[in-house]
Design a protein that fits this description.
Length: 327
């Protein structure tokens, strides 16, 4: 296994055991007998594991529990282990038997380790999740051939800067993610607001596992059957298609539709988008009723997405150009 950069966090074997649910004695056997890990050792002979080791331990535990001999998989790298496991994580509280899992592409090994843990998946009430790709950082994600299954991009970065926003937009456009969730530690408020206006969900650390689970669930249609009834594809709510400026422009256009549908629909979309963002902020602030606000955000996002589809039909009928920046 390649040695990670010195800036990567290090964990003692007890912390790895607590995170993964694997006894310390088992981790030592996997290391010494099978060569699964190559931890750094301090002068005091303390083992220090990195995030790659934590990821590998989680996968080894999962695969060995499914019947794979540890001797046969201990020396495989993370990509090989993930291909073997396919990482389906199901909870007993799915909306329906035939529900498709929510597919995530994740940037950041630390947050991937949280998502892949059994403890985290217990926080999901309505859906099963599947991690399709895990990338170490945004630089890797820019050129990586990500799975076409991925619906949601989940990113963890320490600092947000305009360059990070630009990189994210490039990745989103390339892979057509329906939603993007960004978890960060530090950022200028102007960058945070710009990212929100472009349709990204942005959340500052610290965020608990239960709050993160609610945040991810909030990108889903609440009622899959109702979504299918309206002809929407998939279960993930698309991010905003139109800015407030575009909606204001459309609302001010005179058309031949006597009931002024363009104006009313544009105004409804703007109002729903505002409530959607408001619900997300409430979800971020209040852990006690996070589930309620995740539900409200999902409801408003579903309605906003449906009205955006309606606006497109009206625009096509009336010859209205919905492209951003159109005068």
């Amino acid at each position: 296994m390649s040695t990670p950069p010195p800036s990567d966090p290090r964990f003692r074997i007890g912390a790895v055991s607590k995170t993964t649910g694997i006894p310390v004695s088992t981790l030592r056997i996997w290391e010494t007998r099978y060569g699964a890990f190559n931890p750094v050792k301090t002068e005091g002979k303390q083992r220090l594991f990195d995030e790659h080791d934590v990821s590998k331990a989680i996968l080894l535990k999962q695969l060995s529990g499914e019947g794979h001999a540890i001797s046969a998989i201990a020396n495989l790298d993370l990509a090989q282990l993930r291909r073997m496991s396919n990482l389906p994580h199901s909870t007993p509280h799915k909306l329906a038997k035939n529900d498709e899992p929510l597919c995530l592409a994740i940037v950041g090994l630390g947050i991937a380790n949280r998502i892949e843990s059994k403890k985290f998946t217990l926080g999901f009430r309505q859906v099963s999740i599947k991690v399709t790709d895990v990338l170490a950082d945004l630089e890797t994600a820019k050129t990586a051939p990500l799975s076409k299954q991925s619906q949601v991009l989940l990113v963890k970065v320490s600092t947000l800067q305009p360059s990070v926003h630009a990189t994210l937009q490039s990745i989103i456009q390339k892979h057509k993610f329906a939603q993007t969730i960004v978890i960060y530690n530090f950022a200028p408020e102007s960058v945070v607001q710009a990212m929100k206006f472009s349709g990204l969900m942005v959340r500052r650390e610290p965020i608990s596992d239960s709050e993160l689970a609610e945040l991810i669930q909030s990108v889903l249609f609440v009622d899959t059957a109702r979504a299918q009834e309206f002809g929407t594809s998939g279960t993930v709510i698309s991010s905003r298609k139109y800015s407030d400026e575009t909606l204001t422009r459309v609302a001010g256009i005179s058309t031949n539709v006597l009931c002024e549908c363009p104006r009313h629909v544009a105004e409804l979309i703007a109002q729903l988008a505002s409530f959607e963002e408001y619900s997300q902020e409430c979800l971020n602030r209040n852990a006690d009723d996070a589930h309620l606000h995740a539900y409200l955000r999902s409801i408003s996002g579903s309605a906003r997405s449906l009205f955006e589809n309606a606006l497109e039909k009206i625009a096509q009928h009336e010859g209205i150009d919905l492209r951003e920046g159109t005068p």
